[in-house]
Write a structure and sequence with these properties.
Elements (H helix, E strand, L loop, with lengths): L18 H13 L3 H18 L9 H12 L15 H5 L18 H13 L4 H22 L5 H11 L24 H7 L1
Helix pairs in contact: 1-2, 2-3, 5-6
């Protein structure tokens, strides 16, 4: 519609957490003719930015961070005497390198790579109370994973077979005698859903 100003038509904000009004103030400060005026305007902007987040006012380096953010919002075009060295703000302004996604191949996805790390640990552990405890934890985690994956009760024989297979036969449990935790479908719901129902 004519005459309406939509955010989608505006220039992107460099630091959206401060909002468009602060960005406009920064642009105004850049446009001021004298360094003295720009300095006074910048200090006023910093005071306003500080009032926007009073909870972090006492934190170490908070003032430095605000001046860094001012430099970033100005595109490093604001010619003033900064009370801090804002050269490190260039690192903040830069986009980080994309992180490599860990693509680990595992035989079955429903257990996840962390359970397979437990299998590897169990293979090398000496027999004893510590290995028995880890076996119990691993078997019960496998039960939870199977339960969530299939949305039905987990088959204890399958867990015993998988535990033996993926530990190269080192860990053998009897599914009829092993004490699995009792799991209800309510226990497997995400925490947020459980909170909403109360």
């Amino acid at each position: 519609m004519e005459g309406l100003d939509y955010n989608t038509q505006r220039e992107d904000l460099k630091l959206p957490e401060y909002g468009r009004e602060i960005q406009k103030m920064v642009e105004h400060a850049i446009s001021l003719p004298t360094k003295e005026e720009r300095q006074k305007c910048a200090e006023t902007i910093i005071d306003i930015m500080q009032r926007m987040s009073p909870q972090s006012r006492d934190g170490n380096g908070h003032k430095q961070k605000l001046w860094d953010h001012l430099a970033i919002m100005s595109g490093f075009r604001l010619d003033i005497d900064y009370p801090y060295d804002v050269s490190q703000a260039l690192k903040i302004a830069g986009r980080p390198e994309p992180m490599a996604y860990p693509m680990q191949r595992i035989p079955v996805r429903h257990y996840g790579h962390l359970v397979f790390e437990l299998f590897e640990k169990l293979k090398t552990m000496p027999a004893g109370a510590e290995r028995d405890q880890l076996t119990r934890m691993t078997a019960n985690q496998m039960q939870r994973d199977l339960h969530q994956w299939s949305h039905t009760s987990a088959d204890h024989e399958k867990i015993a077979d998988d535990l033996a297979r993926y530990t190269d036969g080192v860990i053998q449990i009897d599914p009829n005698e092993f004490e699995f935790e009792r799991i209800s479908s309510k226990d497997l719901q995400p925490t947020e859903k459980r909170k909403k129902k109360r």
